[in-house]
Design brief:
With about 550 residues, the chain is mainly α. Helix content is about 80%, strand content about 0%.
């Protein structure tokens, strides 16, 4: 019998559809940004560092504090006489207060933060990055609002708005980039020096990026009204059951700190590569790492986040009711579906790393520099997605201490490897080396997290995770061979090859290569009688059949 709950499948599909649209627009935004300021340029790195500051904190918030604390507590609070309304008002008020204070503090400290996250930069590049940071850091507040408003909706099983709101963010940002290119012209190779950037250029580029995040957050209040909620600020925090949430948050806040330290070290080490551009302009640094991570996150955000978000609320409910078997079924089903997509996504994006990179950059040396970083990051996709799902399991169990432990181990490995790479690796391959260190540290984290989860809830054998994973990997082998063969038939990935000649040829090559890879993967899974394949298609059939009705 299928283990995929139809309601979970529908919720996951709704979220995934929103994420797919958002990611398509996000790719368009990244391509326009690369056209506007380049990828392997000083201006791109300056904006990349500044815009990465709020994005890093946001990723941690969603993956740590709010996810760990809010949904399980809201599930509990809904049992009250007011349906949890009083709890929501107080928690949201507290969160808004904290986010505003943190944002104000970080914005004031922008010059210090920029210097912490960079090394070896000129005064002009530091000044440009700092100016960008003053415009970008207010995103922290709006990312916080988006997270809080969205988690309240998720706790009430209104999953769609949280995943569709980023579409508005991308639309606003795209409009800003189109205006920037129309007014100031494109500069993909960095002809415009950092000293030529005036306040008008800085405000338009970074200001519209922040405006998009604000729109993404505030649109969720419309969705609140559709489910009968209204925001009423309530500063009476004492004696209303916020204590357990704050205690749970303490470990997550610790995880925030260690992760921030890891991100700081990685960015600072990666930024040193930019200092060598006088001898070789096509050297990957901060901006290239950000684009590679965007590509890495595509399958994760479309599938893993959608699946984990839908199952998270159910696992929290199972934990509250003491239904351990149902908890394990949801966890392992989520892991199997995540693995189904992550394995083939890893293979496809490694094979197509150069054509995908060509979409964002022009010259072949820059294409190769970015493509190598993409391929290196992709090695860690499966363990990264597994860790994400297992973190949600711990959060549903109201255990934030254990994720702090295995995350701290991962960050310690990552920091050690990044610093070592900074001293030993040539600058031309520094960011590739850091990406490999990231993949390795996440793999270790996944092994430790799985061991700790088994210790907490008992064995997970008998739920088919290992068996399914073996089928996926086996099916990916002929799929990868088909992809490499197709890429070879159209000329490979050399400097003059069709696959990296133009943006259009790169996109066509991606389609030509990814299609047979996906078909071979699905056919092989069908021959191996993979149950997950049938469950996914059954869920899709049910979803679209319901839509027709």
């Amino acid at each position: 019998m299928s283990e995929l709950n139809p309601s979970v499948t529908r919720s996951s599909l709704i979220m995934a559809s929103g994420t797919i649209i958002s990611r398509i627009l996000g790719f368009a935004r990244a391509v326009l940004l690369a056209a506007a300021i380049g990828v392997t340029t000083d201006a791109a790195d300056a904006f990349g560092v500044a815009n990465q500051l709020p994005n890093n904190v946001y990723a941690i918030i969603v993956g740590g504090v709010l996810n760990a604390v809010l949904v399980p507590q809201l599930v509990k609070a809904r049992g009250g006489l007011d349906g949890g309304k009083g709890y929501v008002d107080r928690f949201v008020t507290l969160a808004i207060t904290v986010f505003f204070s943190v944002t104000l503090l970080f914005t004031i400290a922008a010059p210090l933060l920029i210097r912490l996250y960079t090394s070896g930069w000129s005064d002009d590049q530091l000044a440009l990055a700092t100016a960008f940071a003053y415009w970008c850091l207010p995103q922290l507040f709006f990312y916080g609002l988006y997270s809080v408003f969205g988690e309240v909706l998720n706790s009430r099983k209104a999953f769609g708005p949280f995943m569709w709101a980023p579409v508005l963010n991308n639309v606003v940002s795209l409009a800003g980039l189109v205006a920037f290119i129309a007014i100031f012209a494109a500069d993909p190779t960095g002809v415009r020096s950092v000293s030529e950037w005036g306040a008008d250029r800085i405000a338009l580029l970074a200001g519209t990026a922040t405006l998009g995040v604000a729109a993404q957050a505030l649109i969720l209040l419309v969705s609140w009204r559709t489910i009968g909620l209204k925001l009423n600020l309530n500063f009476h925090w004492r004696g209303f059951g916020l204590g357990p949430a704050l205690r749970a948050a303490s470990w997550s806040l610790g995880m925030v700190l260690v992760t921030q330290i890891g991100g700081l070290v990685q960015t600072a080490v990666a930024s040193t590569a930019a200092a060598q551009r006088d001898s070789s302009p096509a050297i990957a640094s901060v901006a290239a790492a950000a684009i590679a991570w965007l590509i890495f996150m595509l399958p994760h955000s479309v599938v893993t986040v959608s699946i984990a978000t839908a199952y998270f609320t159910r696992m929290a409910e199972h934990n509250q009711a003491g239904r351990e078997k149902e908890f394990k079924v949801d966890l392992t089903t989520g892991l199997r579906v995540i693995a189904l997509v992550s394995v083939i996504s890893t293979a496809v994006l490694i094979v197509l790393s150069y054509p995908v990179a060509r979409v964002f950059v022009g010259e072949y040396p820059s294409t190769a520099a970015l493509g190598n970083v993409i391929a290196a990051f992709m090695i860690g996709l499966l363990p990264f997605s597994f860790v994400y799902m297992m973190q949600r399991a711990f959060f549903a169990l109201e255990d934030t201490r254990t994720p702090f432990i295995f995350t701290s181990i991962q960050i310690a490995i990552h920091i050690t490897g990044s610093i070592t790479a900074g001293f030993l690796a040539p600058k031309e391959i520094l960011v590739v080396t850091i990406a490999l260190v990231t993949a390795f540290s996440i793999s270790v984290q996944g092994i430790i997290a799985y061991a700790m989860l088994k210790k907490r809830i008992g064995t997970l054998s008998g739920f088919g995770v290992s068996r399914s994973l073996a089928k996926f990997v086996l099916s990916a082998v002929p799929a990868t061979a088909a992809g490499i063969g197709t890429l070879w038939l159209i000329g490979g990935i050399g400097a003059d090859s069709f696959a990296v000649d133009t943006v259009l040829s790169a996109v066509l090559s991606c389609i030509l290569v990814a299609t047979p890879m996906a078909l071979v993967y699905l056919i092989t899974l069908a021959l191996l009688k993979s149950p997950e394949l049938g469950e996914i298609f059954a869920g899709l059939k049910g979803r679209f059949g319901q839509a027709k009705k």
